[in-house]
Amino acid sequence: MNPEAARSCREIAALLETAQRVLFVTGAGISADSGLPTYRGVGGLYNGEATEDGLEIEEALSGDCLAVRPDITWKYLAQIERNCHHVEPNAAHRAIVALERTHEVVVLTQNIDGLHARAGSGDLIEIHGTLARRYCQECGAEADLADPQVPPHCRRCGGVVRPAVVLFGEQLPGPAIERLYDELAKGFDLVFIIGTTAVFPYIAEPVLQAVRRGVPTVEINPAATRLSGSVRYRLAIGAAEAMTAICGALAAGG
């Protein structure tokens, strides 16, 4: 880590010493150190390339495609699930959980990989849902995660099962949005955005709101994003390295 980044980590740790409520906004980049490829939306596996079925990944993983060709949608969902099942939370996930011992921490994540939940995050808003749950589109019954059928079908009514995720073209879950608004209304003392290009307004807005209110903001991302020029601190390094350094400095007294 270069001296400038190390100094920023110490300054961020000093802010954490006096902060009470902290928001973490995370994207695919926080899971990169777990071995998951980063990709826009649900991907990384098909970044910029069409699928073997000739569809863009956004088309294959859309609500419209699930309605008419569930076999295609589930073909690629199954590939993503296999990638997620073979990885574990990394140091960045664990560092966020560790901060819950001393801070009121809220995590807003775009990720559907379930790694924040598996690491133990308590106050978690999975805005795009999670692969860790399936249900029947017809009767709503919970479905077996281990069902190898493509597409899987409900044991109760025979309907097509879907994962509890937001597919392309679908609306965000109302309860998750309401929770986000409620948390933002309470305010935060420090806001982190980690591993996301923040292309969605509901991901960028919590950070921009903090900037407008004078709340310190931290971006952790090796690549520059649309928010890089707005945040107070920008760490152009990986999430695990950054969060380990910040928590180490916090433990050492800033």
TrEMBL record:
<dbReference type="InterPro" id="IPR026590">
    <property type="entry name" value="Ssirtuin_cat_dom"/>
</dbReference>
<keyword id="KW-0479">Metal-binding</keyword>
<feature type="domain" description="Deacetylase sirtuin-type">
    <location>
        <begin position="2"/>
        <end position="254"/>
    </location>
</feature>
<dbReference type="InterPro" id="IPR026591">
    <property type="entry name" value="Sirtuin_cat_small_dom_sf"/>
</dbReference>
<feature type="active site" description="Proton acceptor">
    <location>
        <position position="128"/>
    </location>
</feature>
<feature type="binding site">
    <location>
        <position position="157"/>
    </location>
    <ligand>
        <name>Zn(2+)</name>
    </ligand>
</feature>
<dbReference type="GO" id="GO:0070403">
    <property type="term" value="F:NAD+ binding"/>
</dbReference>
<keyword id="KW-0520">NAD</keyword>
<keyword id="KW-0862">Zinc</keyword>
<dbReference type="InterPro" id="IPR029035">
    <property type="entry name" value="DHS-like_NAD/FAD-binding_dom"/>
</dbReference>
<dbReference type="InterPro" id="IPR050134">
    <property type="entry name" value="NAD-dep_sirtuin_deacylases"/>
</dbReference>
<dbReference type="Pfam" id="PF02146">
    <property type="entry name" value="SIR2"/>
</dbReference>
<dbReference type="GO" id="GO:0017136">
    <property type="term" value="F:histone deacetylase activity, NAD-dependent"/>
</dbReference>
<dbReference type="GO" id="GO:0046872">
    <property type="term" value="F:metal ion binding"/>
</dbReference>
<dbReference type="InterPro" id="IPR003000">
    <property type="entry name" value="Sirtuin"/>
</dbReference>
<feature type="binding site">
    <location>
        <position position="136"/>
    </location>
    <ligand>
        <name>Zn(2+)</name>
    </ligand>
</feature>
<keyword id="KW-0808">Transferase</keyword>
<feature type="binding site">
    <location>
        <position position="154"/>
    </location>
    <ligand>
        <name>Zn(2+)</name>
    </ligand>
</feature>
<feature type="binding site">
    <location>
        <position position="139"/>
    </location>
    <ligand>
        <name>Zn(2+)</name>
    </ligand>
</feature>
<protein>
    <recommendedName>
        <fullName>protein acetyllysine N-acetyltransferase</fullName>
        <ecNumber>2.3.1.286</ecNumber>
    </recommendedName>
</protein>
